[in-house]
UniProtKB/TrEMBL annotation:
The lineage of its organism: Bacteria, Pseudomonadati, Bacteroidota, Flavobacteriia, Flavobacteriales. Residues 1-19 form the signal peptide. The keyword Signal applies. It comes from Flavobacterium faecale. Keywords: Signal. This is Aromatic hydrocarbon degradation protein.
Length: 406
């Protein structure tokens, strides 16, 4: 069954990845857009905590986790987002439905392999400005595109308590920003289209460790380090008026990402409860490109802090389904690294969710809820109040079993 589901999603992937508009945030104008990937649905429901060595859920943030898999695991997730964008003078609402990730994990003895695709960031907004003495001029700024990530990871279990892993990511995408200006007194307007084709490779290395400190209690830890890397941006500019369109080649740019380290730790009782925390630190980046450079915009160090956990009333209950549900919750604070008019663009959110077992299998459906705030009203900027509903499937089965009978 899982093989048919995987094949079906693969057929739909190319359409969904490129057709979706993953962001409506005006802040997605800067850099590579609004970074959307925050982990799987089950991890996001706990504020981003994914520290336990899980055998049936894929951890997409630490490649060492692949060595824990006991069954072939397929995971896919998507989000419905609604955002209210506010300034001191106005308020607008936007809605988006997006595919967040799709991955497959294979257990290979002490090794584990994971691969998949993640729509990593999105650019998407439309801003219209009407001005002039008689309001005869209109300027419309529209953007589309983003960056996708294809990854391949390998984990190895050195001891029953300690794993290491590495993954390689190929990042690619196209970002297009169109500026259309019209005048009621002129028949034809002017359209300027800036296009950036992005590509690059980066590497992550990780480790996970767990040990018992009593008969029931265990402690967990996770470290993931992303090496500094670059994205190559090939830029072009097309200017169209009533005359012949003119294509102007723009200088290619290098978008640089600083190294990033993620540290997680937790304590709990396996298949019962877990409480954990996570800290992320990233060096300053240089995300400026030909279309989004501004003297009022800089990029600083980024990072986040989060806490979260889960509780299962009775994992082995056969008579009461509600006792087998996983209840999750968490809190996160994120500094995006984007600074506009000396104001840091921060993100604060509360999360919760449930994991619903699929009877008769090791598979489950995960539902997550998140409410939060991004940005600020200070200095004439935009504050985004958002609510997300995420749904993820974690499907598990045995593959490559040797037949006992022909």
């Amino acid at each position: 069954m899982i093989k048919k589901i995987v094949a079906s999603f693969c057929l739909l992937l190319s359409v969904m990845t490129y057709a979706q508009e993953g962001s409506s945030s005006p802040y997605s104008f800067y850099g590579i857009g609004d970074v959307r990937f925050k982990g799987t649905t089950e991890a996001r429901s706990m504020g981003g905590i994914a520290v336990e060595q899980d055998s049936i859920h894929i951890n997409l943030e630490n490649p060492a986790s692949f060595a824990n898999l006991k069954l072939t695991s397929f995971t896919v997730g998507g989000t419905y987002n609604t955002t209210t964008m506010k300034t001191d003078a106005a308020s607008e609402k936007a809605r988006r439905t997006t595919l967040d990730y799709m991955a497959l994990g294979l257990p290979l003895g002490k090794f584990g392999v994971g691969f998949g695709i993640i729509p990593y960031s999105s650019v998407g907004y439309k801003i219209r400005n009407i001005y002039g003495d008689d309001l005869e001029k209109t300027a419309t700024l529209t953007s589309t595109g983003g960056v996708n990530k294809v990854f391949l990871g390998l984990g190895y279990k050195i001891t029953p308590k300690f794993n290491i892993g590495v993954d390689v990511n190929y990042n690619f995408g196209v970002i297009s920003i169109v500026n259309l200006e019209t005048n009621n007194n002129i028949q034809s307007g002017t359209r300027e289209t800036n296009t950036s084709n992005l590509s690059g490779v980066n590497f992550n290395i990780g480790s996970m460790y767990q040990t018992k400190i009593s008969k029931k209690l265990s402690v967990f830890s996770s470290v993931n380090y992303s090496l500094s890397n670059d994205l190559k941006s090939k830029n072009t500019r097309l200017i169209e008026t009533a005359t012949v369109p003119e294509t102007i080649d723009q200088p290619d740019r290098t978008i640089s990402f600083g190294s990033k380290i993620s540290l997680s730790a937790g304590i709990g009782q396996a298949r019962k409860w877990l409480v954990g925390g996570k800290l992320v630190f990233q060096e300053a980046t240089d995300l400026s490109n030909n279309y989004n450079e501004s003297p009022n915009v800089t990029y600083g160090r980024a990072g986040s802090a989060s806490i979260g956990g889960y509780y299962i009333p009775d994992y082995g209950s056969y008579s009461n389904y509600l006792k087998r549900i996983v209840y999750r919750g968490g809190f996160k604070y994120e500094r995006t690294g984007l600074i506009i008019r000396s104001e840091a663009i921060d993100n604060v959110g509360f999360t919760m969710g449930v994991g619903l077992p699929i009877s008769g299998t090791f598979s489950n459906m995960n539902i997550g809820f998140e409410i939060g705030k991004k940005g600020t009203l200070s200095s004439g900027l935009v504050q985004e109040n958002y609510a997300n509903i995420s749904i993820g499937l974690s499907l598990n089965d045995k593959w490559f079993e040797k037949r006992k009978f022909n």
